[in-house]
Amino acid sequence: MRSRIDPESMQGLDAMLALTGPGGVGAIPDLTARRAKLVEMRVLAQAQQEPFPGEIENRTILSEQIPIRIYRGQTTAAGAPGLLFIHGGGMILGDLDHDDAVARKLTLELGAVTVSVDYRLAPEFPFPAGLEDCYATLRWMADSAADLGFDPQRLVIYGGSAGGALALATTLLARDRGFSGIRFVMAPYPMLDYRNETPSSYEVIDVGVWDRALNIEAWQHYLGPNPVDVSPYASLALAKDLSNLPPLFIDTGDIDLFRDEIITFVQRLMQAGVVVEFHLYPGSFHASEIIVPQAQLSEMIWETRLRAFERALR
User: Fold this and answer.
1) Cα 183 from Cα 43, distance rounded (Å)
2) How far apart are CA 41 and CA 19, in angstroms?
3) List 256, 260, 288, 298, catalytic entry
4) Is 256 one of the catalytic residues?
5) CB atoms < 10 A from the CB of 131, how many?
């Protein structure tokens, strides 16, 4: 699989693996040590980060005391979109700093008021804790639109990987609980199927980003070692009814173990009458546009996403 990776992106991947060690963070057997390594890498990245031209505020909300981070750019104006941002990390990794650079980018590019949610992680808090945190934050955003300063008719969701799964699950949950205020959802390379039975889930075993062994471990932390009667809100591939969802955008690389479960899911969305835009990028691995943002392929991925947001928010 590594021989099929875009050469420019491969250089960035090798640079990351030089920091994590062979096999990436998934090769670190202890979850606590794995989380600590990610924090160490983020500190290095943040030291090179440009100052954010705007305001960033951390606070906790609701009786559940959910930690959130609010971003407003200097150019954020009245009528701005409101963006619920859900970080990735396989349901077991990450916090408000995990995808902070992506949240900043989207805030500035969309002129949005962005709310990033620090949902509870497994195994300390297995399903449905994290999902309920995301849904509660969505409803809080809708109720607080005037105070936050965004147009409630332009409420959108972004989440990649596990964040993509939670973005889609939050959308499904909103539909089933009678909340119809979501304008658009973008879910890059979402984590959809706990069964790990697709061809791509067997092919991607040694790229070093999010490979088969790490995915299996993450699902076991999220659902338990021997799950039965798995909820479709936990594993979206099990959802029988995908109708009446807002417009969606999903993309993935062809060197991503989620590739085939995503393609099947997108086909089912279209068959259910959902408006969905889908892109498959040859040579791209899981989160390559975040790991190697300077690559030409990464720039193309981001340009396509931003154009989709612009269309959805007109």
Assistant:
1) 34
2) 8
3) 256
4) yes
5) 22
Range 2-18 burial, b when 16+ CB lie within 10 A, else e: eeebbeebbebbeeebe
Dump strand ranges (E) for 66-202: 66-73, 80-86, 113-117, 150-159, 184-186
CB-based contacts of 37, cutoff 8 Å, min separation 6: 20, 25, 28
Inter-residue contact 222 to 195 (CB < 8 Å): no
Helix (H) or strand (E) run with residue 26 in it: none
What is the H or E stretch that residue 218 is in?
helix 212-223
Going by C-alpha positions, the residue among 88, 81, 166, 177 that lies closest to residue 129 is 166
161 is catalytic: yes
- If you search the block for the tokens 């963006």, which residue do you land on? 83
Residue 45: give its domain's CATH number.
3.40.50.1820
Q: pTM (2 decimals)?
A: 0.97
Look at the chain and report how many structural domains it folds into: 1
What is the rounded (10 degree) CA torsion for 249, 163, 281, 247? 0
Catalytic annotation present for 286: yes
Residues of the domain holding 123:
2-313
Tokens of 292: 């190697």
Confirm if 265 and 244 have CB atoms less than 8 A apart: no
Q: What is the distance between the alpha carbons of residues 190 and 206, in angstroms, rounded to a whole number? A: 19
Catalytic residue among 87, 98, 221, 286: 286
Beta bridge partners of 74: none
Q: Would you state the structure tokens that stand for residue 8, as one six-digit string? A: 């420019």
| Dist. CA 1–CA 194, nearest whole Å | 22
pLDDT digits (tens, 9 = 90+) for 292-313: 999 999 999 999 999 999 999 9
Which candidate in 6, 97, 116, 161 is catalytic? 161
pLDDT tens string 47-102: 888 999 999 999 999 999 999 999 999 988 889 999 999 999 999 999 999 999 99
Torsion of CA 48, 49, 50, 52, to 10 degrees: -160
